[in-house]
Amino acid sequence: MSADVEVLLRGPKAYDLARQAMAAMEAHQVWPTALNFELWLHYVAAKDGQLGRTIAGMVAAGEPFTDATAEALAAEHLPRARLKGELLTAGDALSKELDTVSKAIESARESSEAYGEQLASASQTLDRNAPPEIKAMVATLTSATVRVQQENQTLENRLADTTAEVTRLRRRLEVVRREAMTDGLTNLANRKAFDEALEEALKEGDESGAPVTLAVLDIDHFKSFNDTWGHQTGDQVIRYVASVLGRAGAAPRTAARYGGEEFALIFPGEKARAALAVIEQTRQEVASRMLKRRSTNQDLGAVTVSAGLAERLPGESLASLIERADAALYASKHAGRNRSTLATSLAAVAAA
Question: In this structure, how many other beta carbons lie within 10 angstroms of the beta carbon of residue 196?
């Protein structure tokens, strides 16, 4: 939170602001999660601030305030969310540096052991009639080497303890990183994880010449569905679609919640036609089930998705690939929805 909002929350107006934030969230059907509450406190306490103006614009436009929206706003405007990302980056750098130090110490230990073995071998080969000064010098070097090896053993023991602690910290860092890269509602990769996975897929494609195909999918008529049944039921639908996409997006593919009711699947090493077969199977599976509202058991009917796919062109940038996949998605929408379109030919596959 900004310093101004922090001051307000520690003064006489704090409870009134909290009530205003809760009332505003209830009026706009926003769940009172801790993150949403913090964001909407900004809205009621500092409407002239950047975050306040952003939320006011969303309210005026009637845009739904989803979990993905909250996470995106927090990452951009809340200092603690930005700090979390910076800590993850710093943690990755520290982990790599510790790996380098550990390998350097291990290399030094092995070199010391090899030197000790060579010195012992040289001592054994000395003739009994070798000059005393040579024998004395070798004995001194052997004694010094033994001391160094003993010190190295102590250092190695300490290193083992430190390595165990570093391993524990790295595992915890990985858990935190995985949580930070996972969409809270669907357990799919979030937008940040999607961006990284697509960049990595394109990099590997550049190195190996392997194809990369991107598919983007959108739940049809979701806003109307959300307005009719409410955000909680809308979240239920999003989780259902995500569960189907998650099965199709097993590694090395990546299934992600791209934003709101939009999803993406990355197909590294797969051409568009092969990816299209997977997306078509996924689309048909989504539409095959008649959903019910959990709270009332009312029939919600079938949910459908539209999809657009683009296979990367030689040397094509990430932004261009996403733009072509989006264009193919819009083509599916304009052609009647519940279908898939390849960006290459914009030839739609009609709904089954």
Answer: 13
Q: Is the pTM of this model over 0.70?
A: no
Question: For residue 73, which phi and psi values (nearest 5 degrees)?
Answer: -65, -40
N-term to C-term CA, the chain:
50
Answer for the pair 41, 4: CB distance below 8 angstroms, yes or no: no
93 φ, ψ (degrees, to nearest 5): -65, -40
Torsion over CA: 139, 145, 149, 150 (sign): positive
Residue 332 has a CB neighbour count (10 Å cut-off) of 27
**What pLDDT, on the 0 to 100 scale, is given for residue 293?**
77
Query: Distance (Å, rounded) from C-alpha 167 to C-alpha 148?
Result: 27
Query: Which among 48, 52, 44, 45 has a CA at the least distance from the CA of 77?
Result: 52
Q: Report whether pLDDT(121) > 50.
A: yes
**CA 55, CA 36: separation in Å to the nearest integer?**
11
Instruction: Give pLDDT, residue 351.
Output: 44
Whole-angstrom distance, CA of residue 174 vs CA of residue 172:
5
Does residue 12 have a cis peptide bond before it, meaning omega lies within 30 degrees of 0? no
**How many Cα atoms are found within 13 Å in the side-chain-facing hemisphere of 279?**
36
Could you tell me where the DSSP H helices lie in the chain? 3-8, 14-27, 34-45, 50-61, 67-77, 79-125, 132-180, 191-208, 222-229, 231-248, 272-287, 318-334
**In whole angstroms, what is the distance from residue 72 CA to residue 128 CA?**
80
**Mean pLDDT within 97-117:** 68
Taking the C-alpha atoms of residue 223 and residue 66, their distance in angstroms, rounded to an integer, is 12
At residue 114, what is the residue type? A
Residues 70, 63 contacting (CB under 8 angstroms) = no
Write out the two tokens for 247. Answer: 């099965």
